[in-house]
Amino acid sequence: MKIGIGLPNTVPDTPGKGLLEWARQAEAAGFASLATIGRVTFPGYEELVALAAAAGVTSKIGLFTNVLLAATRDPVLLAKEAASLDQLSGGRFVLGVGAGGREDDFIATERSFHDRGRRLDAAVDLMHRAWKGEPVAGSPVAIGPRPVSGDAVPMLFGGYKPAAFRRCARWGIGYTQGGGTAESLRELKRQVEEAWKEAAREGRPQIRALVYFALGPGSEEKARAYLDTYYQRPQIADSIPKTSEAIQQTIAAYEAVGCDLLSFTPTSSDLDQVERLRDAVGAEVLAAV
């Protein structure tokens, strides 16, 4: 199982230079990927812009959105932006998307909340046609650029309903769990694999997961304040790993259920969190993957 780290793009008051230094240090530490989370109605850095900036100061670390609310976006522009990031990063980008669950993000973008699943399906279908070079949405020519692979930007899908699993099987390279436990991932993974088989897909779906973390003095208080602001649920901080031992236990639990990449998402933008997580995971573990 590979180990990734999130960018603190939604941690309030994260300086731009600090975000770039975080990306540099994450790559130097040996993490497999940098991931973003994101909402519209929250004072954070937009995900694709943050990952484009991170791509510019790194050369090999993977990049993915975990997840981006595609139903709040214009699908033509999203197709162009995702393919641009894919090309500019040298094929390191994976577009993780979900339907979204907070109505205020849709109100702010003047899009309907109640038909978001249907619109997400239509958007992803359009994006794949655009990536293949087909003219879309009335354009007389292909909107480009073409993805590195030629046909599509690799996609992950998040969500907890059958529609999300069907999207994985139809368009994705796999599934990403946006929160929960290793045990809950076990059942989600089973359903994704079942949908994959029903769609007659070859191989197997990639499985990724997100876990928040907070390490070192004062980190728990910062985690509680951040999670209260972001989710209005400060109690989430009670269950996240806060020690090296808890990090190791979390890794073992997710590896046991067959997770392919576990992304530890920060609750503070203090740069020492990168080093602390590296030490908790173990340099030898990061080097091995």
Would you kindly provide a written description of the structure presented here, covering whatever features stand out?
It is a single chain. Helices cover 45% and strands 15% of the residues. The protein is an alpha/beta fold. It has a single domain (2-288), classed as Luciferase-like domain (TIM Barrel, Alpha-Beta Barrel). The protein has an eight-stranded parallel barrel, surrounded by seven helices. Helix 6 (162-171) links the parallel strand 6 (155-157) and strand 7 (174-177). The protein is globular and about 55 Å long. The model has no long low-confidence stretch (mean pLDDT 97).
List the helices and strands and how they pair.
Elements: E1 2-6, H1 16-29, E2 33-36, H2 47-56, E3 62-65, E4 68-69, H3 75-88, E5 93-98, H4 103-108, H5 116-131, E6 155-157, H6 162-171, E7 174-177, H7 182-198, E8 206-213, H8 219-231, H9 244-256, E9 261-266, H10 272-281, H11 283-288
Parallel strand pairs: 1-2, 1-9, 2-3, 3-5, 4-5, 5-6, 6-7, 7-8, 8-9
Helix pairs in contact: 1-2, 2-3, 3-5, 6-7, 9-10
Question: How confident is the prediction overall: mean pLDDT?
Answer: 97
CATH C-level name: Alpha Beta
Strand ordering within the main sheet: 1-2-3-5-6-7-8-9
CATH superfamily heading: Luciferase-like domain
The succession of helices and strands, N to C, reads EHEHEEHEHHEHEHEHHEHH
> Structural class from helices and strands?
alpha/beta
| Poorly predicted parts | none
Instruction: Supply the number of structural domains.
Output: 1
Specify the overall morphology: globular
CATH architecture: Alpha-Beta Barrel
Q: Note the gap between the termini.
A: 7 Å
Q: Strand fraction band?
A: 5-15%
Biggest β-sheet strands, sense, barrel: 8 strands, parallel, barrel
CA radius of gyration is 18 Å
Helix content: 40-55%
